[in-house]
């Protein structure tokens, strides 16, 4: 997982229509510091936590798809996923903790995909049997 955290902070602040000046006031950083952070690929968990708190979002948002790509193939927003993430009260203490939770979630998704595939095959077999 290769994430440009500075760019992600910029994208998330833009989705909330926050100016650099507003973001600097919310974080207590200078506007120049904000611009410097936007250019950094790697940031410490303390900085991510500070921006997550300022943006009023769970730190996990920094690890999700960029806001500009939060669409399914049909072009509809992934509203259910976004609503779950936005309404969660889970805050991670470190990037490692977040990555562990994401790995667990991916494993669950893969298991569910296998179950769906198995059920689809069963449905196909039953349809063939009935024809």
Verbal overview:
Helix content is 64%, strand content 0%. The chain is mostly helical and 131 residues long. The chain has a domain at 5-92: Orthogonal Bundle (434 Repressor (Amino-terminal Domain)). Helix 1 (5-15) crosses helix 3 and helix 2 (20-27) packs across helix 3 (31-39). It is elongated and about 70 Å long. It starts with a helix and ends with a helix.
Walk me through the topology.
Layout: H1 5-15, H2 20-27, H3 31-39, H4 45-55, H5 79-87, H6 95-130
Which features does this protein show?
Cro/C1-type_HTH, Helix-turn-helix transcriptional regulator, elongated, mainly alpha, coiled coil, Lambda_DNA-bd_dom_sf
CATH architecture of one domain: Orthogonal Bundle
Radius of gyration computed on alpha carbons:
19 Å
Q: Output the CATH topology of one domain.
A: 434 Repressor (Amino-terminal Domain)
CATH class of one domain: Mainly Alpha
List low-confidence stretches.
68-78
Arithmetic mean of pLDDT? 78
**What is the beta-strand fraction?**
under 5%
Number of strands: 0
Percent helix, as a range, is 55-70%
Q: Please tell me what the overall shape is.
A: elongated
Classified in CATH, the superfamily of one domain is: lambda repressor-like DNA-binding domains
Number of helices: 6
InterPro entries: Cro/C1-type_HTH, Lambda_DNA-bd_dom_sf
Organism: Rhodocytophaga aerolata
Protein name: Helix-turn-helix transcriptional regulator
Keywords: Coiled coil
């Amino acid at each position: 997982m290769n994430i440009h955290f500075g760019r992600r902070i910029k994208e998330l602040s833009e989705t909330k229509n926050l100016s650099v000046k507003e973001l600097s006031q919310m974080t207590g950083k200078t506007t120049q510091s904000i611009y410097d952070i936007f250019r950094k690929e790697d940031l410490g968990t303390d900085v991510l936590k500070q921006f997550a708190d300022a943006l009023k979002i769970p730190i996990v948002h920094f690890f999700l798809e960029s806001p500009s790509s939060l669409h399914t193939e049909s072009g509809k927003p992934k509203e259910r996923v976004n609503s779950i993430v936005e309404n969660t009260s889970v805050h991670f203490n470190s990037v490692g903790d977040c990555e562990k939770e994401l790995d667990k979630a991916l494993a669950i998704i893969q298991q569910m995909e296998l179950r769906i595939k198995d059920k689809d095959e069963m449905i196909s077999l039953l349809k063939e049997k009935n024809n």
